Amino acid sequence: MKNIMQRLYRFSYKFIQIVSLILLALLFLGAFLSTCYVTDMESQKVLTKTDNLFFSFAGICVFAAALIGICRWVCKKPGKYKRILLFVVLLLCSAEGILLILFGKTIPAADSMSVYSIAQSLALGDASVIHPTASYLSYYPQQVGLAAYFEGIIRLLNLLHVSAAPFHFIKGLNVAFVCMIILFQYKTVHFVWNSDKADCIYLLLAGLNLPLVFYSSFIYGEIPSFAAVSAGIYFLLKWLHGAEYRSRRRIVFYACLSIVLLSASVMLRKNSLILVIAVLLTVFCRYLRTSRPVLLLWGLLCAVCCLCILPVIRTGYEKRAGNTLRSGVPAMSYFAMGMQEASRGNGWYNGFNFNTYKESGMDAAVTTQKSREAIAERLTYFKEHPAYAADFYLHKHLSQWADGTYACRQATLASGGRHTFLTSVYEGEYSSLLISYCNIYQNVLYLGSLLFCISGMLSGLKGSSSRALPESKETGSCTFGLSAYLGLIGVTGGFLFHIIWEANSRYIFLYGLLLLPYAARGIVWLEERICLYGKNFLSKFKFSRNS
To answer: How far is residue 94 CA from its own chain's centroid?
Structure first.
């Protein structure tokens, strides 16, 4: 039985390596050859252009060379300079976030405005917003967790008699959460690879990530949710791979804290379940390798908590209001909409899910049936026009994964009063510079992650089939195995999900953050290979001259 489990683990490991390699190759090629962007902020139509390969390659080389050059300087005295670099990156991101709060004038809009308004009413004691037909939450009940988060903040500010609009404080919290993301991902990179160079490259990539700064002013669940995920993954890895170095009490604390944080991420953003599934798969594979029953118990508790947190909050609101909410727009309507054309791009929001649900009298069964009919109609059309189907999904894919800005400009629009310079960055002459920079950054991100996958495959070919990269650390024999690929499993799940779900490059933003540690390690691997080949070349050159 143990041999079967070990074989299943090795198969899973190889499978993840191969799938990750293929996926990152596709992502890099798509982003390297093309760029998706928006110029008209009213229609927000996604345009696609073919990139100049020379400039794309030159941009990658300059960007990567700058990263490696700074990294080599920092690593001369890593104990001192890494702390300085961490402080500078956190300070820079905080300062940029605060400047956006002061001069960006971003306000809640669309869905975020609906959730924010509901939270304001609930904070004032008005529970009438919990209603089976006249409530936004009866269309989208998955937003109850975010409403609870906003309500808690608003209640606290009301208690403190703060006169400023609560959403300004929410943006301030987002800035703190951005720092939390960077800090815990940095700690994860150091824990997994114990490499000063990887630590340094990660900090540089995080500090130069402009969409991350822009999204700190996005009054929604993305930033706090990913902050919880980042911390949850870190404490999970500390539990899985650090037991021999810590007390039993601390290990139990890490295990419980990771469940709490992952549950909080789902509360704030239901799509975080994709990352939770990646975590559960990783833990199960760890069980196959170690045969520790406690891993199955942890997985069961984590799944129960993450699946129950939103229904529990919803039930609490229903009891408080003495009313009920509907089951909401069914998932099938999102799949149907993901197969349709829209004004912004293929598979993007066109109102089908909301309108069908509303026209069906908010009957989930009727909406599901109509959605299935729409899916069958589109499938028939795709079969009759295969070239159109291929083009449809190609552009749907590119509109999400080849947009280096991840729709950060569209998501954080302002109603007016924005500083002139920021207006030009969002909509004016400087917007093209922002798009170009983010495109180069994304190319480096995908290429670095691809190099990580290549290095993992090469190490496997050399006989290290159970390793992502060398698993032994200078500080001990802690081995990671498939756990090192946890983020890539999440990215793979996100790719598969969003190719059939409603499209939006904003949804891809968090998967871009998941790739940051892998890009850092991949760039370090590239630098090590360049140095190795350079030394070999010089030694051969000197030998040939002497002979």
So the answer is: 20
Q: CA 419, 424, 425, 430 torsion: positive or negative?
A: negative
Q: Is 187 helix (H, G, I), strand (E, B) or coil?
A: helix
Q: How far apart are the C-alpha atoms of 435 and 39, rounded to whole Å?
A: 10
Give dist(CA 408, CA 397) in Å, integer: 18
| Residues 6+ positions from 133 with CB-CB distance below 8 Å | 326, 362
- Rounded to whole angstroms, the Cα distance separating 378 from 371 reads 11
Nearest-angstrom CA–CA distance, 485 and 488: 5
Rounded Cα distance, 91 and 446, in Å = 26
| Identity of the residue numbered 538 | L
What's the DSSP call for residue 45? P
Tokens linked to 275: 């990352």
Which helix (DSSP H) or strand (DSSP E) does residue 36 occupy?
strand 34-37
CB 283 within 8 A of CB 298: yes
Rounded Cα gap, residues 254 and 226, in angstroms: 18
- What is the residue-level pLDDT of the chain in tens, covering all 547 positions? 678 888 888 888 899 999 999 999 999 999 999 999 999 888 889 999 999 999 999 999 999 999 999 999 988 888 888 999 999 999 999 999 999 988 888 888 889 999 999 999 999 999 999 999 889 999 999 999 999 999 999 999 999 988 888 999 999 999 999 999 999 999 999 999 988 999 999 999 999 999 999 999 999 999 999 999 999 999 999 998 876 556 778 888 999 999 999 999 999 999 999 999 999 999 999 998 888 899 999 999 999 999 999 999 999 999 999 999 999 999 999 999 999 999 999 999 999 999 999 999 999 999 999 999 999 999 999 999 999 999 999 999 999 999 999 999 988 877 667 888 888 888 888 999 999 999 999 999 999 999 999 988 887 665 443 334 333 333 333 367 888 999 999 999 999 999 999 999 999 999 999 999 999 999 999 988 888 776 666 566 555 555 5
C-alpha 427/C-alpha 413 separation (Å) is 9
- Using alpha carbons only, how large is the chain's radius of gyration in Å? 24
For the chain, counts of helices (H) and of strands (E): 22, 2
- Interatomic CA distance for residues 342 and 185, integer angstroms: 36
3-class SS at 348? strand
d(CA 541, CA 547): 10
Rounded CA-CA distance 346/398 in Å is 10
C-alpha 223/C-alpha 264 separation (Å) is 12
Contact (CB, 8 A) for 260 and 276: no
